Amino acid sequence: MKIFNTLTREKQELIPIKEGEVKIYACGPTVYNYIHIGNARPLCVFDVLRRYLTFRGLKVTYVQNFTDVDDKLIKKANEEGITVPEVAERYIGEYKTDAHGLNVMDADVHPRATEEMAEIFDLITALIDKGYAYESGGDVYFRTNKFDEYGKLSHQPLEELEAGASERVDAGDLKENPMDFALWKAAKEGEIYWESPWGQGRPGWHIECSAMSRRYLGQTIDIHCGGQDLIFPHHENEIAQSECANGCDFAHYWMHNGYINVDNRKMSKSLGNFFTVRDVAAQYGYEPIRYLMIASHYRSPINYNVEVIEQNVRALERLYNCREGIEFTANNAVGALTEEEKATVEAFDRRREQFITVMDDDLNTADGISALFELARDINTAMAKNPSKELCDIALERFNELANVLGLLYEKKEDSIDAEVEDLIQQRTDARKNRDFAKADAIRDQLKAMGIVLEDTAQGVKWHRE
Fold first, then answer.
1. d(CA 94, CA 88)
2. Which of 58, 170, 237, 431 would give a disulfide with 206, using CB separation of 3.0 to 4.6 Å?
3. Which residues, other chains included, contact 109 with Cβ-Cβ below 8 Å and sequence gap of 6+?
4. CA distance to 118, 188, 208, 331, 367, per residue, from 199 (Å)
5. DSSP one-letter string for 69-80
6. Is the pTM of this model over 0.85?
7. Torsion (CA) 262, 265, 268, 269 in degrees, nearest 10
8. Percentage of the chain surpassing pLDDT 90?
């Protein structure tokens, strides 16, 4: 598999540190509010990465953190008159509701920044001892100009970064250089704090991820991933502090997903086009959101609007109809593969290889979905030919395998009907046998008015809800 590495700006063959195993760290949410549709993209994209690597036979260890102490949590706690841990606990719960709704698998470890203070202290102490960090007025800062490779991820020279930082520097900061960033922040009055070797305070955002990654995955990891907006300063700073403290590479591959626009405009609360996952799911369900997040290549920008999400609903319906068609046909089928059907299985397998080829090319989920639809078309054709039970079973296995890698088709469909509807379907079947087509059509119309649509097939009558 080849991955576009932000660090090298080229596609590179994925060569794990340890053969057969991949260690991934994904930056998780700051838990002060409901996640928005922009947050949903890395969740879904890198969930597919994890699923795909597992499908390809690799053992994946996946760590995704919760940032549970931050200026935003402190502000939220003050607004609501509750504690920072109470804010964090509430929105971790809300995150899990949305993530599970999007069919995002739980990470192997979900560390919380506030539970990793010992590791954070160790990292900061190592950086101070090596001369890469200094204490100033109860804060601790990292010396960016002491790390010669600073800027290597964002591909910006230090001089340009310094020029931008000098315009943003806070007059209250006691930094040696405007580019220096906080590893530890002295507590302000009324803020949550921890006792540390440098006094009461809390960790900086960047050091939290370095500490959690090192504790659960080791000093060097295979893949670090997150949104494009995290490249600078967050991931740039993670590299600097981790590599200076540990004396080795931090991550071999960096993957970043593109932005989401709303109606072709940047999503922003000030523009009134800011949507939470919960809001959209309340109207359309979670699965069309997941489909949106993976229907384009992960590095490309995507555009959210009502028309697109409704198209996704219809696309998913076509895939569900394919699976339901296989299951219906299988219930009425018998026998083993015929010689002719062996060629059909080979066609199914070529779609599987097509899927692998495109997904191996920098996780091209857009073309992966196309391969799934082409497999669905092949299956629909096969199901119309009175197939054997064995062919139905193979078709279902191949179809579900690819859908599961993409994390799609996980919603449970209503598959039961009441006795009245079942009786009407049987009456219509009997009417057709007796060539009473007027009665059969009348019953069909009656069922349609009840939201039940019938389809006559060689294997019998299929139904689905309108």
1. 10
2. 237
3. 63, 64, 216
4. 15, 12, 18, 70, 54
5. SSHHHHHHHHHH
6. yes
7. -70
8. 80
